[in-house]
Structures are given as C-alpha cells and as structure tokens.
Design brief:
Elements lengths: L2 H11 L4 H11 L9 H8 L7 H11 L3 H15 L5 H20 L13 H10 L2 H13 L3 H11 L8 H10 L1 H16 L3 H9 L8 H11 L6 H14 L9
Helix pairs in contact: 2-3, 2-4, 4-5, 6-7, 7-9, 8-9, 9-11, 10-11, 10-14, 11-12, 11-14, 13-14
Length: about 250
C-alpha cells in the first residue's frame, strides 16, 4: 500500500491524532517543540509528500514497525510518482521507439523485437498502434520466434492490447514456455517491486529464498493481479502469490 495509507493506518491503530503523531516524532527527533508538525503528517498521509529518509526512521520508531518496511514503501511511492499512467504521457516518453517497433511489426520484420527486452511503457504504446495484421505477426512470433527475447517481447505487447483480447493465448504461452515465463516474470517483479533486474530474476527463480519479504512482495503482487491492462502481469502476479502463500504472515516482525 502507499506509505501515506500505511502511516495513517498505523496511527489509527494507536488511536493517535495527526497532531499526536507529530509530537511523538518531534520527541523522537530530539526537538519536542519543532518539526515535523501536524501539516507535514497530513501531507504524508494524503500522498502529497513522501517522507524522507530522516523521518522514515523516526516514523518506524514511534509506530513500532521495521524501518525497512517503511523504507521500501517510501521508495516505491517515489518510483510510482515517476511512472506515467496516461497513454498520451507514455507516448511522449516511448513514442519514437514504439513507432519504430510498430512499423517493423507491420512489415513482418522481427529484428527490433529480437534485440533487447522492451519496457512496460514501450509495450503499452506499441500495443495501442497494432492493427489486425500486426497482431497476427506478433502471435506468430510469440509462438514460434527463434529467440526468447523475441517471444517475450511479442508476448508483452499482445498482453497489453486494448480490450485484452489475447489474454488466454498469453496465459498459455507463459504457462508452457519456460524462457518466456522467466523473462516476463523478472520484468514484472522488477517493475512492481522496484528491485534491480538481478534481484528480480532471483525472486522469480527462488521465491522461497525471500520468505523474509513475503508479506511485502504479496502486497505488491495482489495489487498487480488486478491490473486491467496487462494480462501477462496478472498471470505472473497470480503465480507469485501462489508461490508466496505458504510464507505469507510469517515474515519476521
């Protein structure tokens, strides 16, 4: 959940007002008459401001939660603030590359899609440009592409088609193509959990090694499992929730 909501929920559990939390934080910081003040707490809770590292440490102390939990939530909130959610905004960032991809797909040229794994944003914009013939080309590459990166890129674009018309086919490929599944899963974990690619790959391969982060990871995947725009991300998130389910609720306090 967003860090502001987490702060509000933890404060409510203690039956504190925003002013009381501000007072406790000031005492924790060694300045009982100073910062942060009720207005700062209010801005944190309504999501207008993400608390910095200094206040995250004091928040964890006074609210009685592990500092790393609040730190991860704060990091993810900062990442999410940099994510463009609208297609028009995504087009500004990814439009040139997506246009190149769309043109090559229409020309039955798999070259650009076989070079490197594309980003979530590029896939969304490319999917919005795909016509019926391009969709057929992508389906062929998804099923029969000679390179894993080509298959996963084709799968990623098809997973984000408006209307989600290829969701069932995407799910079947992810279930049966191990190389595509690992690449797609790694990309989803990296994006959703805000971790580097190497760590995301390790989580994808051995989620049981991250039992100490099971609750945090499950929260992220539960949200992504409802993503209406990416059938592949929904499938991967559901699989990760299944893998994490025996460990949920057992993370150390």
């Amino acid at each position: 959940m967003p860090i502001g909501q987490l702060i509000r929920d933890l404060r409510t559990l203690k039956q504190w007002t925003q002013a009381r939390l501000a007072e406790e934080l000031a005492v924790s910081a060694g300045d009982p008459t100073g910062a942060p003040g009720r207005d700062a707490v209010k801005r944190w809770e309504n999501g207008k401001v993400v608390p910095g590292k200094h206040w995250v440490g004091h928040l964890a102390h006074v609210l009685g939660v592990p500092p790393e939990q609040l730190s991860m939530e704060a990091t993810l909130d900062r990442v999410n603030r940099r994510v463009f959610l609208g297609l028009s905004a995504l087009a500004v960032t990814h439009g040139a590359l997506a246009s190149e991809m769309a043109a090559s797909i229409a020309d039955r040229d798999p070259g650009p899609l076989a070079r490197v794994q594309t980003t979530h944003g590029t896939d969304i914009v490319t999917a919005s440009l795909a016509d019926k013939a391009s969709t057929a080309n992508l389906r062929r590459w998804m099923l029969d592409g000679d390179m894993p990166v080509l298959r996963v890129n084709a799968t990623g674009i098809l997973a984000k088609l408006p209307g989600q018309g290829k969701a069932d086919q995407v799910a079947r490929v992810l279930a049966h193509d191990e190389e595509v599944r690992h690449l797609y899963m790694t990309a989803v974990i990296s994006r959703v959990c805000a971790v580097d690619w190497t760590t995301a790959g390790r989580i994808a391969s051995r989620p049981m090694d991250y039992a100490h982060r099971a609750d945090f990871l499950a929260t992220r995947f539960a949200r992504e499992a409802l993503n209406p725009h990416d059938s592949g991300a929904r499938w991967c998130s559901s699989v990760m929730l299944r893998e994490l389910s025996p460990m949920i609720g057992r993370s150390p306090a």
